[in-house]
Amino acid sequence: MSLRALLAAVSWLLIAETSAAAVEGREEVDLAQAFARAKATPIGGIVTIRVSPDQVLVAKGGALVLGGLRLLVHANFARFDGDTTIVAFDERATDKPGVGAQGALGAGGADGTCPGRTGCGGSGGSTGGDGEAGSAGAKASPVRFELSEVAGTGRLIVQNEGQQGGKGQQGGKGGTGGAGGKGGAGSSGVVDCREGPGRGGDGGTGGTGGTGGRGGAGGPGGRVLLSCAAKAAADAGRLVISVSGGKKGPGGDGGAGGDPGAAGGGADGNGYCNGGPGGSSGPPSSTGANGPEDSVGADGEVKLLGPCK
Asked: pTM here?
């Protein structure tokens, strides 16, 4: 343990002992219950918790979610009995719904015009469209602690972090490959087939799936404002604060590969000529690449409300 941390711990023990005596016998106000009431009716977008001087605000544990709202906590006396967490957001930003545009259908092969009277092969389908980007994460709103005396052996953990970005949209499906052309008819003689019928053309390859959309950028971390007593609690590890920028959203999934083109049919029988063989369906196509990620949000800041001794 560093000297600074040791001094902070010793200072906290002295402060906590004094504060414990100060809060003893006062009416308790449960932080979680007060938070729920205040969040249900925020004033100007602020979850406002005010405790009268003859009361003590007690954090007994649990998780409290601001959901982007601001927070003001004003109490002459506070006590941390268990680990209580306050988070700015518990869900990432909106994922981009749907999928990108499907690629265009490949052109069909011509009938019987390729060498040997075969049907021509179908063209490949087009690549699917790229997915759109996920929503950017929101910035965490300011949190303000106006505390005069803090006691207790628990912790108040404040995660005033930016919102994670939303997931990018899935890439579009690749276009279906073009159908192979029909084989050309055979040439029948008087007593036999002089030139056989053509084979059907092969179907084209389905288009590659589109690239997934970019994940949304993380939102900036928020500001946390502290009174001197709150800072002393933070120095002693009783008030744990994080103002990190939000995580970047995941990139969208790559689009599905397009369906293979249909095989071209063989030529029909003609006189002494039998029908020709059919072609093959197109080869498998590829799934698109997953989308890239954007940036992590900028960190917020922790500031004092005024000078401390």
From this structure: 0.82
